[in-house]
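Section 3.1: Structural characterization of target chains.
Under the original work plan, the team committed to producing a structural model for every single-chain target entering the pipeline before any wet-lab resources were allocated. The record below documents one such target. The sequence was received from the expression subgroup and is listed exactly as submitted; it comprises 405 residues.
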Amino acid sequence: MTYSSTAIVALLVHCIVNFDALIGRQFRNDTPAGKSYRWLILSDVAFYIFDAFWGVLYDAQMMDAVYADTVLYFLAMSATLFLWTRYVINYLQDTGWLIAALKHVGTLYLVFVAAVLMLNFFLPVMFWFDEAVVYHSADLRYAILAVQVILFLASACYALFTARGKHQSAKRHHWAIGVYGITMAVTIIIQVFNPPLPLYSIGCLLGACILHTFILGDLMEERRLELEEMVRREEEHKKELGSAKQMAFRDSLTGVKSKHAYMDWEERINERIKTGEQESFAVVVCDINDLKKVNDLYGHHEGDACIKSACERICAVYSHSPVFRIGGDEFVALLSGQDFIHRYDLMEQISTIPREQTKVQAGGTIAAGMAEYDEAQHSCLLNVFEEADRAMYKQKQFMKESLLQ
């Protein structure tokens, strides 16, 4: 029963350590290495189960049952070696001659063991039980275990030797295979000279724990790299958004803030108005007179020049306030600070008709209207804007009548 107890404990520890891989969570089961690793630990589970039953059936001296379990035991052992070779190939991703040989040797080993076990029914070349149900090993058993020792040691030596000069992740992979191979080789050698001891199960458990430790390191490193990549992409996304926002918030013709920018400011001002945090400000709405006439008489190129000239004048007058172009010939300035304090003087400057202006020089004047924010009257920026817009149209009409006189 002691033999079975060791296998049962190994099975429990194996399942606990590799729980995520067994249920297909977190471990990279979508990669060749992840898939082969999961199959490897599943074959270990099968081996532990057969090994545990072997001790129980052997102690109970159930000849037929223990013989069948012994066959399954050796099949599971050979399947584990076969799957381990596949894992080494996928995990190391090397192109060395030993790696290429492992693919064929693992397959041949599995086929050979299966054939020997079939032959063993008729001729005990691998193992047999006497009439007292005592287990005896045959020569082929030792030959098969010797092949395993050679494969494990050869792969361990190859992995540890080629680990030199590898980058950190690849070096960790090679060390995992190297330590696993040495562990399995040592336990198998001891098992050869002590058949009743469940050392193969102990070796598989130690090897699985070693692989799990290295693979967990891989996962942590991959996660770190993924997080770094996510942060990098997020920073690039923010830069792209910032660049796109700047383009959207900047008028391409005049260089002042666009209508999108005005809507953004409007939203923020409305929030402050709702919370009672908005300080005093004024809205100035400006419109270029007779821009359509300029376009009709001189073309849109001259019209654009007129818009730029008017914008430069508005910005010069309201040099401490944000200026927005919200339409073809319509601008808005949001006055605060010094510009709000001197708002009336600035209105005179923006509305004054230049002395050199004549009736022929259409599009050179700017009609402007201003409205001040009153907490008692205005519930949002739109209310102030509409009041300033009405004042602008009155000024526009006044300027037209003045030019006709």
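The longest helix spans residues 199-248.
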